[in-house]
Specification:
This protein has about 140 residues and is mainly beta. It is about 0% helix and about 55% strand.
């Protein structure tokens, strides 16, 4: 995996390029010194890795993390079928929306405020091409 944001903070985002079993090792460091090294076994499945990294529709989910209100945006989607599905980590569907975009710049509000803090997976299908994103709900 590659760290894409959050290095030297308490929240790190990692992009995995290949499904498989990995070990993630971290160590906390602050003004008091370095903490013990902790290792976490990570299972990367299709739901957690990046599919279609080309991102031809410039799909974004912002802000991420947030208190539960996320905006899904895409460009160049006029007259295209867009299917959006949000899943919790147990694979339960929390939100499903099927629509045909009538504008070039698509914006969809996804409200997860009533759900627990944690990670959620968003599956976006545009014209039979699937894109996966992970959002983090915290606070709120």
């Amino acid at each position: 995996g590659s760290i894409i944001s959050g290095q030297n903070t308490n929240l790190v985002t990692i992009t995995w390029s290949t499904a498989g079993n990995y070990s993630l090792t971290v160590s906390a460091t602050n003004s008091c010194g370095a903490g013990s090294i902790q290792t976490l076994n990570v299972v990367v499945s299709v739901a957690t890795l990046v599919i279609n990294p080309d991102n031809q529709f410039q799909i974004k989910v912002v802000p991420n993390p947030s208190g539960g209100m996320f905006y899904l945006t895409a460009v160049g989607v006029i007259n295209k079928e867009i299917n959006v599905e949000v899943y919790d980590l147990l694979g339960q569907a929390l939100f499903v929306d099927d629509t045909r975009a009538n504008v070039n710049n698509y914006v969809r509000l996804i409200n997860l405020t009533k759900y627990a803090n944690g990670a959620y997976h968003i599956k976006i299908t545009i014209d039979k091409k699937t894109y996966l994103r992970t959002v983090l709900k915290q606070g709120g």
